[in-house]
């Protein structure tokens, strides 16, 4: 028996053990297991390597550490005077029309937080201008967390401000994702540490060698900024030139971001602190965050009520996906979805089918210019089925990076979560559920304006695709279950 035969036999045995692990230990979805069986059977060596890099789940130790460091949002907010309980919010009629949705979100640990003033930015340049102005006005603390923080013109401008505020004596903390920010050299972030700030890298690579990262399939896709515990930002716009429309290939770049003033900022602060405690192995007692002004006394800044939902590979329940499904199933009039990637699982697919068959006006908008061609092929495959159901499909004339869902006349979701398997299960994500007629109407108008800059496509559009494109769509759709 030669060395090749021995090595091949060992790989096949390992592949079998991997499949056993998927079925009995990780309890993966059947379609996910079938996809991996296909790859491991027909490409045993390549499939094994792909699984090690992309398929292996988070270790038990990592999951336990994340949970150990997490702070209960309920426990924090219960100690802040002036915040209503869920029952009080219902009695006041704040969530009268959406009690089921609010109760679901509450069961996931998210408080309904009223009295927020929320600004919606549909332009990266507008968001960046407002963010830099707020950062310069910061007086006590800046907590910032981004999937992508680039060492380019946009990133340097923000980093200059962070360093300036750190030198002034403010408490400045920054988390960046190791994979999303891989092109930024570590010396770029060292600048902030030298200025007196603190930096955390989420899931750093082995021995700090960027090419060796066994957790590269799990990314912290969140974008969270909290300033003085009073002003919060979250949404789809990262700190990078193309996200503010400076990329020639992906123009125009359409995105959505939120600026929140009010009690809703507490939930964003909680998200940041959870991730910070894990990144830095921080054991600060939660009571000190209350005493040190991270959660200042609430003020009524506006009329919107929010609940912030998080999800990630550390969670046994896909909380954001289930929240979206609940919103869709509760719809009475309309469901508008904007997402750069549309790869729904069976549950999400069924919710949309039920909605359209129930007479709900369902519309889905994706970019016409893709940034990831393989993912876009899978997206087109699913959109074809959506079109067959009667759902209206729009291709935005540019790159659409917005992650938004509008439901009826009184609620919407804006955050970091795409409508695909990666965002629902592999990424650390967050989204803001907003209960507000005014903001719903505002974003509905934005959606209508986006329609004017889009191409509506029907079933014929998908049927006219070349046969090779249809084959690639089918292949990419199958492989999309892997990740």
Describe this structure in words.
- The protein has three domains: 3-56; 62-104 and 113-304, Endonuclease Chain A (Endonuclease, Chain A), CATH 3.30.870; 319-479, Endonuclease, Chain A (2-Layer Sandwich), CATH 3.30.870.
- Helices cover 46% and strands 20% of the residues.
- It contains 19 helices and 19 strands.
- The strands form three sheets. Strands 4-3-2-5-6-8-1-9-18-16-15-10-12-13-19 form a 15-stranded mixed β-sheet, sandwiched between helices. It has a two-stranded parallel sheet with strand order 7-14. It has a two-stranded parallel sheet with strand order 11-17.
- Strand 15 (404-407) and strand 16 form a beta hairpin.
- Helix 1 packs antiparallel against helix 2 (30-42), helix 1 (3-24) crosses helix 3 and helix 2 (30-42) packs across helix 3 (44-55).
- The longest helix is centred in the first third of the chain and has 22 residues, at 3-24.
- The radius of gyration is 23 Å and the shape is globular.
- The two termini are 36 Å apart.
Strand order of the largest sheet: 4-3-2-5-6-8-1-9-18-16-15-10-12-13-19
Query: In the residues, how many domains can be counted?
Result: 3
Count of DSSP strands: 19
CATH architecture name of the largest domain:
2-Layer Sandwich
* Tally of separate helices: 19
Helicity level = 40-55%
Beta-strand percentage range: 15-25%
Q: How confident is the prediction overall: mean pLDDT?
A: 89
- Write down the overall geometry: globular
How far apart the termini lie comes to 36 Å
Derived from helix and strand composition plus strand pairing, the structural class reads: alpha/beta
Largest pleated sheet: 15 strands, mixed
Unreliable stretches (pLDDT < 50, length at least 5) are: none
Q: Radius of gyration from the CA trace? A: 23 Å
- CATH class (first level) name of the largest domain: Alpha Beta
CATH topology of the largest domain: Endonuclease, Chain A
CATH superfamily of the largest domain: Endonuclease Chain A
């Amino acid at each position: 028996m030669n060395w090749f035969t021995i090595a091949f036999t060992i790989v096949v045995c390992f592949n079998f053990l991997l499949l056993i692990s998927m079925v009995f230990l990780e309890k993966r979805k059947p379609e996910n297991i079938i996809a991996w069986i296909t790859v491991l059977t027909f490409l045993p060596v390549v499939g094994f390597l792909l699984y090690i890099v992309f398929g292996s789940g988070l270790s038990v130790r990592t999951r336990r550490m994340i949970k150990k460091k997490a702070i209960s949002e309920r426990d924090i907010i219960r100690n802040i005077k002036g915040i209503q309980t869920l029952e009080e919010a219902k009695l006041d009629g704040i969530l009268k029309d959406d009690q089921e949705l609010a109760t679901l979100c509450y069961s996931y640990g998210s408080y309904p937080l009223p009295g927020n003033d929320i600004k919606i930015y549909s332009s990266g340049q507008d968001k960046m201008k407002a963010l830099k102005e707020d950062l310069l006005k910061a007086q006590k603390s800046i907590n910032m967390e981004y999937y992508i923080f680039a060492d380019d013109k946009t990133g340097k401008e923000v980093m200059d401000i962070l360093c300036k505020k750190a030198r002034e004596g403010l408490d400045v903390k920054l988390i960046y994702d190791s994979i999303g920010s891989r092109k930024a050299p570590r010396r770029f972030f060292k600048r902030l540490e030298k200025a007196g700030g603190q930096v955390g890298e989420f899931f750093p690579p082995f021995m700090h060698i960027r090419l060796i990262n066994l957790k590269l399939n799990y990314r912290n896709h969140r974008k969270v900024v909290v300033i003085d515990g009073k002003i919060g930002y979250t949404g789809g716009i990262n700190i990078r030139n193309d996200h503010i429309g400076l990329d020639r290939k992906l123009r125009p770049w359409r995105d959505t971001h939120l600026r929140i003033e009010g009690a809703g900022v507490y939930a964003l602060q909680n998200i940041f602190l959870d991730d910070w405690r894990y990144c830095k192995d921080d054991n600060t007692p939660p009571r000190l965050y209350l005493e040190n002004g991270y959660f200042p006394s609430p003020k009524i800044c506006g009329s919107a009520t929010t609940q912030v939902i998080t999800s990630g590979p550390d969670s046994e329940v896909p909380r954001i996906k289930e929240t979206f499904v609940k919103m869709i199933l509760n719809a009475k009039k309309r469901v508008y979805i904007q997402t750069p990637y549309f790869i729904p699982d069976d549950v999400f697919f069924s919710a949309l089918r039920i909605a359209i068959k129930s007479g709900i006006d369902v519309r889905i908008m994706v970019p016409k210019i893709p940034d990831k061609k393989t993912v876009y092929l899978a997206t087109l495959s699913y959109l074809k089925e959506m079109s067959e159901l009667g759902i209206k499909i729009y291709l935005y004339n540019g790159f659409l990076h917005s992650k938004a869902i509008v439901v009826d006349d009184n609620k919407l979701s804006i955050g970091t979560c795409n409508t695909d398997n990666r965002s629902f299960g592999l990424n650390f994500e967050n989204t803001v559920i907003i209960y507000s007629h005014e903001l719903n109407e505002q974003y509905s108008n934005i959606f209508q304006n986006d329609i004017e800059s889009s191409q509506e496509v029907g079933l014929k559009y998908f049927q006219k695709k070349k046969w090779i494109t249809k084959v690639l769509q089918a292949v990419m759709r199958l492989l999309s279950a892997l990740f």
